[in-house]
Each structure stands twice: as C-alpha cells, then as structure tokens.
Design goal:
The protein is an alpha/beta fold. Helix content is 45%, strand content 17%. The protein has a five-stranded parallel β-sheet with strand order 2-1-3-5-4, sandwiched between helices. Helix 1 links the parallel strand 1 and strand 2. Helix 1 crosses helix 5 and helix 2 crosses helix 3. The longest helix is centred in the first third of the chain and has 13 residues. The termini are far apart. Bound molecules: D-ribose. D-ribose binds next to helix 3.
Length: 145
C-alpha cells in the first residue's frame, strides 16, 4: 500500500521507527515531514497528509505528534478523513474493521516504539468489515455534506 506519514517535532523519533516498519512490511512510504526537531505546528503537517489520503494519492495516512490528539483533530477537519487515535491494538483493529479509519494517529509521548509497531502492523493489516458498519460510515459521510 502507499502510505503518507507525517509528524510534528513531538513525533519525530516515532515517525522514523514507523517508517522503517512500513518499509519492512513492503509498503511505499511518502514522508510529509517534519524532518528536524525544530518546533513546528501540527496542522501544517496534518493537512497535506489528509489531502494525500482523500485525493487518492495514497491509500492511508499515519500522523504522529506528542499526544496524537492535535494532529488528529486537524486531520479530521478535512472532508473524507476518518482519523483515529489508537494507543492499543484493539482500537487499532476496530478503527479499521468498524470505522474504516483512513488515518491512524499516535502520540510519541504516550506510547513506546514496541507498542506503536504492534498498532501499525494490525492497523495496516485489517480490512473494513462493511455490512452494518458501512451504513454507519455512510452516515458519518452524510454529516460532511
Ligand atoms: C507539541 O508540543 C505538542 O503540543 C503536540 O505535539 C501535540 O501533542 C498536540 O496535540
């Protein structure tokens, strides 16, 4: 799959390990920054990643900041984005299976790289179940009209 990845300064180290994992899993990664530890503003990264996802330029996105919260709030302002903050593997699985989340967000200051690796592996491998969940996701999409 093609995956857009991005972070602010609070997620720089975790982005590097997630990128390595995605490459090892055989995914194609497009890195939207940031690339240094200098302080930056997470909406400036969230929006280009979100646009890459909703335009179909990539299949999915992964966004990382200190908490995973701000960058996810910003991404969810873009029409078509369903960004899910996941700090456990159960949420990661069901954000895909039931919510068809197209962006995963995590906080480097919240979880370690080992758990993040499990979360990303499960999130990337889980398909949307559709069925009754399709109807619910369609109702979310209707809210954007
Ligand atoms: C940056 O200090 C921090 O506020 C940011 O990474 C994130 O946690 C915001 O939600």
């Amino acid at each position: 799959m093609k995956v857009a990845i991005g972070c602010d300064h609070g997620g720089l180290n975790l982005k590097a390990s997630v990128k390595e994992l995605l490459n090892a899993l055989g995914h194609e990664v497009e890195d939207f920054g940031c690339h240094t530890a200098d302080s930056c503003d997470y909406p400036d990264i969230a929006v280009p990643v979100a646009n890459a996802v909703v335009s179909g330029q990539v299949d999915r996105g992964i966004l990382i900041c200190g908490t995973g919260i701000g960058i996810g709030i910003a991404a969810n302002k873009i029409k078509g984005v369903r960004a899910a903050l996941c700090h456990d593997s159960f949420s990661a699985k069901y954000s895909r299976a039931h919510n068809d989340a197209n962006i995963l967000t995590m906080g480097e200051r919240v979880i370690g790289p080992g758990l993040a690796k499990d979360i990303v592996t499960i999130w990337m491998a889980t398909d949307f179940e559709g069925g009754r969940h399709e109807r619910r996701v369609e109702k979310i999409k209707a809210l954007e009209k």
